[in-house]
Amino acid sequence: MRELVLHSSEAQAEALSDALLEAGVLSVSVEDADRDTDAEQPLFGEPGTEPSVQAWERNRVVALLPDGADPAQIIEGVGAQLGADYAAVLAEWSLRDVPDADWVRLTQQQFGPIHIAERIWIVPSWHRDDPGVPGLGRLEDAAGDIHIELDPGLAFGTGSHPTTHLCLAWLEAHLAPGATVLDYGCGSGILAIAARKLGAGRTWAVDIDEQAVIATRDNARVNNVELLAMLPDELEEGTSDVVVANILSNPLKVLAPMLCGRVAPGGSLVLSGVLARQAEEVCAVYAQWLPMSVWRERDGWVCLHGRRA
């Protein structure tokens, strides 16, 4: 396969990308043309929001070509869409070969076993026989290690994000045997599955995304745990001993009355997906129902905890 490479300004990058896709390329990526130099520019966006800057001052626009595609025809098609303003950009282009590779294996190499807190291991299926993971492959582990088999997929939650670490660490440290658990915004189901493996009783996993609910059910089956995965309108009335929600701060603020109302007397509410600088604001929103405080911080993210009287 081959890639078509062009260069553009910040103002041109988005329209150029769209025109290339319209002309028939398979995919387009936009890179900082000054990457790995002193002029490299970092771009940051708030989680869950669109960044205010969509590209760099100088961009390398890379389009993956279908086999047999004529790059000159692609350029001609893009020029017909964009007009004379892009003539200079389209006048200078180059091709580069994409080396053959085992993309599945390369992707898998990015995801190895993840050790969380003292006892929890998140293990992709291609590492299920990994001798480096203590107790893996044994039904009973003398050290009490908990193994969760989980592959990266459509639903959020592979165990690598700091907020997932924080919630899992809280569950390991504080979840009482037999406690009922509600995982709201379950994503892949990793928190609900961990809760069951740590000894929780009846456990609900809820998400607004149907694909997440399907992924949670599949992951629960792989891990031989029983839980109730569903969409929000399927959740029955009632409370749980532990309610955990690892989503972003704005949805957490909107959901505050509902989540607090789901906590049983004496039960715990555990929240993450909150940046350290957002913690005070989120706690203030919850204060009218449940006093919350920072339980732990990791890499700029926090886990908030509150207990119902």
UniProtKB/TrEMBL annotation:
Superkingdom: Bacteria
Keyword Methyltransferase applies: yes
Enzyme class: transferase
A GO cellular component annotation in the UniProt record: cytosol
Residues annotated as signal peptide: none
Record carries keyword Acetylation: no
Record-level GO BP terms: methylation
Residues holding S-adenosyl-L-methionine: 164, 185, 207, 246
Catalysed conversion reaction: L-lysyl-[protein] + 3 S-adenosyl-L-methionine = N(6),N(6),N(6)-trimethyl-L-lysyl-[protein] + 3 S-adenosyl-L-homocysteine + 3 H(+)
GO MF, one example: protein-lysine N-methyltransferase activity
Localization annotation: Cytoplasm
UniProt KW keywords: Cytoplasm, Methyltransferase, Ribonucleoprotein, Ribosomal protein, S-adenosyl-L-methionine, Transferase
Enzyme Commission (EC) number: 2.1.1.-
Function description: Methylates ribosomal protein L11.
Protein family (similarity comment): Belongs to the methyltransferase superfamily. PrmA family.
Protein name: Ribosomal protein L11 methyltransferase
Organism encoding this protein: Bordetella genomosp. 11
Top-level taxonomy: Bacteria, Pseudomonadati, Pseudomonadota, Betaproteobacteria, Burkholderiales
